[in-house]
Design goal:
Rossmann fold; 3-stranded parallel sheet; alpha/beta; homodimer; 2 domains; 16% strand
């Protein structure tokens, strides 16, 4: 039976570290402050926002909410991002996405100053991920994947890593993070032929296809570590990309959904805020 | 016996296209103009510069040489790049590298305006390669690899591509170009374990390890297309990363060294200049 790589202990360790660093900053007269910018009132945006506020409250980070109606003009929205980027009391800016159509999210990303860009929307931070420059802020989810492997002591160097996702929020940046850790990296996607042959040869398999219970026994093998980044909603509730019960009986370790990577991603956001305070000094 | 993927026909086709486009621009009153910037008098820099000037002459592109002594100050060198970036008569800027130590090549790259950046030194162009944004200018060598496969009609979509190189001038950007062409891409490097097992499973193998005749029969298999990007100098002369005679007898197609990718890379630089003229309008 596989080791279950739960997200909570990883997230708790990150949060404990963040809380301590935030407390020290507060004592030194710098209250870590996250601005959360939202346009409209989509239910999942509000749910995410509330979760972020609660998480921040647990670790000595204060939040300020800037909320616009869904039909806010591009000019007013981007002016707000400009002001927040210049505001010395704000250390990080989280923009809830997707943005309404009238707002150019590419331009919005460029207006978030790189050292306040906790969710990696600024192209300068993305560029640093690709060039292996550790001075930037990585996207949260890829960083969470590396974090969970390190936390549970699974070596990465020299391992064959297969990532099934080629998006800019997961597969592409994650392939660069794994290369920086000396892994051999294969990126697969919807056009990949003989996918199960490739995935079953992996030492570490990362899936982000967004199809509920897509990967079964033919895609995995013993001694494999599986990180399931899929978040899918079905009638039975939330699940990952893996046929969890079937895969768990074969592989050596697997992260569950829910309770896996998603939990860590939110904690990484908090750490980015603390790093932003340090970068802003 | 393998098909030999010679670079010359590919380069000739690119040059013919470039010459025609340059002639039209000239007729319309815009003489395509490349600035070549050199610091010092290293022999290989001068040889490369002369090759570029000769190539440009063949395709209706004019060149202007800006040459500094090896001990030129950072300020004077970067001021020249600023002026060239603003000069409306200059369409592309080629800086010979490596630069002397006193010049920060990262800063130099940022000073070359993105639309004149024929050799992809500006981070904005590199970012576009990584995000799959086709509006930028790619590094020449990765583009040459894609070009040779398309010229000889080797399909890329859905194929397993293995690249042995993770540098910023070859492996990383090339992996992104292959992903954009719907290939499944594996990036290997010096820390990769069981390299021959991985390479021998490829449909397309791209090598850039810079070790003369490193890859022999155990690294390849029939039906494979091999693109050798290695340029190595030995007592016997110039050679690639492949044991050419040994590998040629096994695989389905192979690019030679010399006479392969290198030839195409120089032609790609000319095409970038023409694209820069178009981008600058």
């Amino acid at each position: 039976m596989a080791e279950i790589l739960k997200g909570k202990p990883v997230a708790d360790a990150i949060k404990a570290d963040v809380a301590l660093r935030a407390e020290r900053m507060k004592a030194a007269g710098r209250q870590p402050m996250l601005a959360i910018v939202r346009a409209g009132s989509r239910e999942d945006d509000i749910a995410y926002e509330n979760r972020v506020i609660r998480n921040c409250g647990e670790v000595n980070i204060e939040t300020v909410n800037i909320t616009f109606p869904a039909d806010v003009s591009h000019g007013i929205f981007t002016d707000a991002l400009r002001s927040l980027s210049e505001d010395k009391g704000i250390h990080g800016i989280l923009v809830l996405r997707p943005l309404p159509d009238q707002i150019d999210s590419g331009e919005a990303g460029m207006l978030i100053r790189a050292n306040k860009d906790v969710d990696c929307m600024n192209p300068e931070n993305l560029r640093k991920v690709f060039t292996g420059d550790a001075s930037g802020i990585s996207p949260c989810t890829p960083e969470a994947v590396i974090e969970i492997l390190k936390f549970y002591g699974y070596p990465i160097r020299g391992k064959n890593v297969v990532i099934v996702n080629r998006s800019l929020v997961l597969g592409r940046p994650l392939s660069m993070l794994f290369l920086a850790e000396d892994a051999t990296v294969t990126v697969c996607h919807s056009r990949t032929e003989k996918l199960s042959e490739i995935t079953s040869g992996a030492d570490i398999l990362v899936s982000g296809v967004g199809r509920p219970e897509y990967f079964g026994r033919e895609f995995v093998s013993p001694d494999m570590t599986v990180i399931d980044v899929g978040i899918n909603f079905t009638e039975k509730g939330m699940c990952g990309d893996m046929k969890y019960d079937e895969v768990r009986d074969i592989v050596s370790a697997i992260s569950p959904v829910p309770g896996g990577i998603g939990t860590i991603t939110s904690a990484i956001l908090l750490r980015h805020l603390i790093e932003s305070v340090e970068l802003g000094i």
